[in-house]
Design goal:
heterodimer, A: mainly alpha, Cytochrome C Oxidase, Chain A, two-stranded antiparallel sheet, 2 strands, B: mainly alpha, Four Helix Bundle (Hemerythrin (Met), subunit A), 12 helices, about 0% strand, elongated
Chain lengths: ~550, ~350
């Protein structure tokens, strides 16, 4: 697709900044960060917090995988401690890392820049979202310190209402994190509706923003339901409310319905932003507009909406009627369609493009492979007759780790490397980054592919000890987990080096065409002195940029 | 700017919305209000953003309560007699008073928006104060209701221990007087049989010699005084469950029907005779306390928000070029009112 001739090279140039400093150096001191209203600073704080939580969740993961190296225990922990470790791993990863992950850490920094806006609609609400994240994290840590919850991250009753561990702090932490999520979603919806620059119609929005918008809709509609569910759980535990207790007239399956009504849309909160990142990466590193832009945009919305109708596919074995199960199963199949459309469109984008295999692109390519496996196995699980056998086995564990680790985290890392020069003002060591990407890719496949096999052979999930015939595959999985961990540690090391002493980054190191590349790296604190006027689609103009050896970045052709 | 203002004042339509004019914000590209944050390029953009933001927030509130409405629906569908039985313990008069007051406070809130739009600072402050008063009245009545419930042992399911029977409540006696009397007699009869006294004696507990019923008020702790008519020895000699079945069989439809609907007695075909409150009756009060408690929490938050608005109004910040916060607070308040309008019939007016 050729660029419309009405676009001039100058339209892709960097908007001059009158500031001497940038948003990182504009203000100094701890207070200027913790009480900032600058979306970029809030995003950077989120980024470091989410990465720290990722390390914590990863620590629990490695603890679990180490314990599972031998089929009989204890190896490094008791069975009760194992339950706590796997619960904390799940809860920290889901609530502190993946749900906030891309929207809060990358979206906060980049989305207003992509809109040519000065900030999000409600900067103070944005700051409050971050403070609530910290508060929620503190409650999780308090649960850890008192007596970590051992219920599994799903908090099913009646165990969660009767176990002596500190369920209430953990549940309350998740409740607070829910509000953090809701406020971020609310902020993003209003920003995208009201703060677009002149000329940027809905179908000229970058696909990352379409993805963030769809995610925000889910956040606003679904999260209140987990809020009320957790509140009911807390009150049930505290005063014996009885709403989930059959002896008092309640129903424990009602908890499952309430819980999954949120938690299914929640997995789309996790993955839809990842889709947005992948769209950006594939377009930029194929130097070609996205194939089927409108289909990808609309498919994000379709996934967001359909995602509300399928929660029962987590409950096929809960005693719900076969009719209900059939309907949930059928609608879940439908979600595969918009998802697959994206995959096909991304591949079509690459066809006849000029592919650059920089690290972000490696992550995007890894995503295509790994997410396809994860997504397809989701379809297997949504087949009710199959799920009856695979429910609560390692097959499920493998499925969701493929989509969450191989999907969301891979895309998160890709976006992190893509936008790193923009928000840090530094380049990272490309050689080490490629090694890191390969270690992550190999590590996650070695960790989780054996788990598909384990699941189909009957290995149940959340088990502390298991039959000896499963030991080989478990050991392979543990080796993969440590490889994965090594990849992450390597990534952390070279990114830290880059932040402190990396080469200065040009405004547009990758030659991308979206608006965030038209301000300096790092941006000035006010982003753009004047709201730019937009006269083109988000992926138009690759031919008008050329690589300049002096700045090691892309500039408009003369 | 002043030209467009007087135009809008002359149009003077009564709604909150800015349809038909831009709400006095000047032209689209202007910052007419000095306190508009800098990331907005125009005051209208600021106002529109706030409005969209508040509506989205209200949507989240609706979904927050939706789970509870869902639980209510499911439990009431599965246990209709529990809900019918339990609602008699609620004071409909107090609930109705709360409903009227909350609706009135919504009116004063709406009026306050209009006051802000046309710069009537005095009336604005008055209406905010009236809204706050309505909210305090509501919470006062709630406190009275809750205190009575705790007093009478009507607590959430885990701690449910009622001190009175449903036929002793004013609401039940008013609606089903014959059934109430019949229930009194059967209950007293069962009590007498339990005390192993013969039916020939008067069973007087608490000192009153009067025939008939003494309605239990919340101040009295004493039991109802009932004098039973003498019974013939053959009936008195029956076994307990046969005696009960016979008494139930002798009930007129007007006496029997309400007792069946409340789950106190069951149909002969449904099993052995029983005379007791319905099983798991406490679940009603679990739902009652959680829903009204959560609603009450939102009323208290609303009081805080209105006090905050009052402080800004006192600083004379509101006027035709800036009234967003009042409108958004009123929108929140209307939602709080709307939720109560659903709760009142759902909990107090069950048929």
């Amino acid at each position: 697709m050729s660029t419309p001739s009405t676009i001039l090279p100058a339209d892709l140039g960097v908007v001059p900044s009158s500031a001497e400093d940038n948003y990182l150096t504009h203000d100094k001191g701890f207070l200027s960060w913790i009480f900032t209203l600058d979306h970029k600073r809030i995003g950077v704080m989120y980024l470091f917090s989410v990465l720290a939580a990722f390390a914590l969740g990863g620590f629990f993961a490695l603890a679990v995988r180490t314990e599972l190296f031998f089929h009989h225990g204890p190896s490094i922990m008791t069975h009760d401690q194992y339950n706590q470790a796997m619960t904390l791993h799940g809860a920290v990863m889901v609530f502190l890392v993946i749900i906030p992950g891309i929207p809060a850490a990358l979206g906060n920094i980049i989305m207003p820049l992509q809109l040519g806006a000065k900030d999000v609609a409600f900067p103070r609400l944005n700051l409050m979202s971050y403070h609530l994240w910290i508060l929620g994290a503190l409650f999780f840590i308090s649960s850890l310190v008192i007596s970590a919850a051992d219920t599994g991250w799903t908090f099913y009753v009646p165990y969660s209402t009767t176990t002596p561990t500190a369920v209430i702090p953990a549940a309350f932490g998740a409740f607070i994190l829910g509000f953090s999520s809701i406020f971020t979603g609310l902020n993003f919806i209003v920003t995208i509706h009201k703060l677009r620059p002149p000329g940027m119609t809905w179908f000229r929005l970058p696909l990352f923003i379409w993805a963030l918008y769809s995610t925000a809709v889910i956040q606003v509609l679904a999260t209140p339901v987990i809020g009320i569910t957790l509140l009911l759980l807390i009150v049930e535990r505290a005063v014996g409310l009885g709403i989930f207790d059959p002896a008092l007239g309640g129903d424990p399956v009602l908890f499952q319905h309430f819980f999954w009504f949120y938690s299914h849309p929640a997995v789309y909160i996790m993955i839809v932003p990842a889709f947005g990142v992948v769209s950006e990466l594939i377009a930029a590193f194929s130097r070609k507009p996205i194939f089927g832009y409108k289909f990808i945009a609309m498919s994000s919305v379709a996934i967001a909406l359909l995602g509300f109708l399928v929660w029962g596919h987590h409950m096929f074995t809960s005693g719900q009627s076969v009719l209900a199960g059939t309907i949930f199963s059928a609608i879940t199949f439908l979600i595969a369609i918009p998802t697959a459309i994206k995959i096909f469109n991304w591949v079509a984008t690459m066809y006849k493009g000029r592919i650059h295999l920089d690290t972000p692109m490696l992550y995007a390519l890894a995503f295509l492979w790994v997410f396809t496996i994860g997504g397809l196995t989701g379809v297997f699980l949504s087949t009710m007759s199959v799920d009856v056998h695979l429910h609560d086995t390692y097959f499920v564990v493998a499925h969701f780790h493929y989509v969450m680790m191989g999907g969301a985290i891979t895309a998160f890392l890709g976006g992190l490397h893509y936008w790193w020069p923009k928000f840090s003002g530094r380049m990272y060591n490309e050689g080490l980054a490629r090694i890191g990407a390969i270690l992550v890719f190999v590590g996650l496949n070695v960790t989780f592919f054996p788990q598909f096999v384990l699941g189909t052979r009957g290995m149940p999930r959340r088990y502390y000890n298991y039959l000896p015939e499963f030991e080989g595959l478990h050991q392979l999985s543990t080796i993969g987990a440590f490889t994965l961990g090594l990849g992450f540690v390597l990534t952390a090391v070279y990114l830290y080096k880059s932040w402190t002493s990396g080469k200065k980054a040009p405004a547009n190191p990758w030659g991308a065409t979206t608006l965030e590349w038209q301000c300096s790296s790092p941006p000035p604190y006010y982003n753009f002195a004047d709201t730019p006027e937009v006269n083109r689609g988000p992926y138009d103009g690759y031919e008008l940029l050329t690589f300049d050896k002096e700045t090691q970045g892309y500039v408009p052709v003369k | 700017m002043s030209h467009s203002d007087s135009e809008q004042a002359a149009h003077g339509h009564g709604g909150h919305d800015s349809a038909g004019h831009d709400g006095g914000h000047g032209h689209d590209g202007e910052n007419v209000y000095p306190y508009t944050p800098h990331h907005f390029s125009a005051s209208k953009q600021h106002f529109d953003s706030g409005k969209l933001g508040v509506w989205l927030f209200l949507v989240t509130e609706i979904l927050f309560f939706a789970g509870l409405f869902c639980a209510y629906t499911i439990y009431r569908a599965q246990n209709p007699e529990v809900f019918y039985w339990a609602h008699f313990f609620l004071d409909t008069k107090l609930g109705a008073a709360n409903t009227v007051v909350l609706i009135l406070s919504s009116f004063t809130a709406a009026w306050a928006v209009r006051n802000a739009q046309i710069g009537q600072v005095g009336l604005l402050k008055m209406n905010i104060v009236l809204t706050i008063c309505g909210a305090f009245f509501f919470m006062g009545v709630k406190t009275v209701e809750y205190t009575h419930k705790f007093h009478d042992g009507l607590l959430p399911a885990g701690k449910f221990a009622p001190t009175h029977n449903v036929w002793e409540t004013e609401t039940f006696q008013h609606k089903h007087p014959e059934a109430a009397k019949a229930a009194e007699r059967i209950s007293a009869g069962l009590q007498a049989r339990k005390n192993k006294k013969t039916a020939l004696n008067d069973t007087v507990v608490g000192g009153s010699q009067k025939l008939g019923l003494v309605p239990v008020s919340h101040e009295e702790h004493g039991k109802v005084a009932v004098v039973l008519p003498p019974e013939d020895p053959k009936t008195a000699a029956l076994a307990d469950d046969v005696w009960l079945a016979e008494k139930i069989r002798l009930l007129t439809p007007k006496q029997r029907h309400p007792l069946e609907m409340s789950g106190i007695i069951r149909k002969a075909s449904a099993g052995p005779p029983k005379f007791d409150r319905p099983e798991k009756a406490g679940i009603f009060f679990s739902i009652y306390f959680f829903m009204t408690g959560l609603h009450g929490f939102h009323v208290v938050v609303g009081i805080g928000i209105w006090i905050w608005m009052l402080t800004i109004a006192a600083r004379r910040r509101f006027g035709p070029e800036y009234y967003g916060p009042i409108e958004f607070s009123a929108l929140y308040w209307h939602l709080v009112d709307l939720i109560w309008i659903y709760l009142f019939p759902m909990l107090y007016l069950i048929h």
